[in-house]
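1st attempt posting a full record on here, be nice pls
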Amino acid sequence: VQLVESGGGLVQSGGSLRLSCATSGFAFRNYVMKWYRQAPGKERELVAAISSAGTNSVYADSVKGRFTISRDNVKNMVYLQMNSLKPEDTAVYYCKVTRSNHDYWGQGTQVTVSS
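the predicted structure (as tokens):
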């Protein structure tokens, strides 16, 4: 199982970024996919999750209405569109899949929002 995030960077408050997570090594279309983030000195937190078919999604209250999770079950990719970014969104963002009771994580991508 391999997960590789990309798309992070430095953006001004109010800006947008689109994160991508390329996956391989498992039957992507059968699994829920999740985005997490971890800010300096804080615990890793769930940002968004999407069902295997992409028909259902859930979001942390802090990002509702600003972030959108999506997936492409042909390309085996999961995305996080982030709009109206705030300085408090600054964190390392990770995608995750749980397979056979084991969590697999990517290496993360840094998102920095300047005020």
